[in-house]
Amino acid sequence: MSRCSGLMLAALSLTAVAVESTLPVRADTGDSTRVANAKQYAHRGGVRQKGVYILKELDLRPGDVVVDIGAGDGWWVERMAKLVGEKGTVHAAEVSKKLVEAMQKKFAKVPQIKPYLCKPDSPGLPDNSCDMAFFSQTYHHLDLNSHVDYLRLLRKILKPTGRLCIIEKYPDISTKNRAHGTPLSRLVKEAEEAGWIPVRCEMIAGTYHYIAVFVQKDMFPPER
Ligand SMILES: C[S@@+](CC[C@H](N)C(=O)[O-])C[C@H]1O[C@@H](n2cnc3c(N)ncnc32)[C@H](O)[C@@H]1O
Hints:
Blueprint: H1 3-13, H2 51-58, E1 65-69, H3 75-84, E2 89-94, H4 97-106, E3 113-117, E4 130-136, H5 147-157, E5 158-169, H6 184-193, E6 196-203, E7 209-216
Parallel strand pairs: 1-2, 1-4, 2-3, 4-5
Antiparallel strand pairs: 5-7, 6-7
Helix pairs in contact: 1-6
S-adenosylmethionine binds near residues 69, 93, 120, 137 and 141.
């Protein structure tokens, strides 16, 4: 077993009992982990080339309220806005004033997109107001010493049924800019400490990245 798959399995096995059945580990092949061909993981590009697949995984619905933390140039925000529709909202949280202003200009005619300047330690939204918190390649930018606090804060901002979705580079398979990523095992540990349970963790085939989706621990009733 490779170190990469070993790490992933170790992280996933920590929570397998809590989610009753084994966690699905998917890689663009439906529910199967079978490697469809020898090149499945070979062609490595950025996550945007897998945007359609990732957005399908998020399963956003009309009326949903999402916060994209570290929205950057608004690439994901623009696509999410189409899925949540005019009755939904996509909060585009950024610490860069320049990027906020650029998004405000770019999305001036898309009322459901709300770009705003946030503090580095909080997206600053009201409690119980969001269906999803989304990070694409931003989690590693948060202050390393306050990851757990940040994720705890998100539990308040999200509705009880809200999901936390994190896309990060998997450092062990990356050969450059490894610091721009987070080991999945560390992310799962931090999220669990903050009261989140992973319901799906998968490598995004053709990239150096994984997507991890969490729900609140309270969603799991006590075992009888
Ligand atoms: C690598 S970029 C990713 C941009 C975008 N999410 C994407 O995937 O294309 C990271 C972004 O996170 C922003 N950022 C860094 N720390 C942040 C924080 N604590 N809260 C919100 N945004 C942050 C940066 O300004 C930058 O735009």
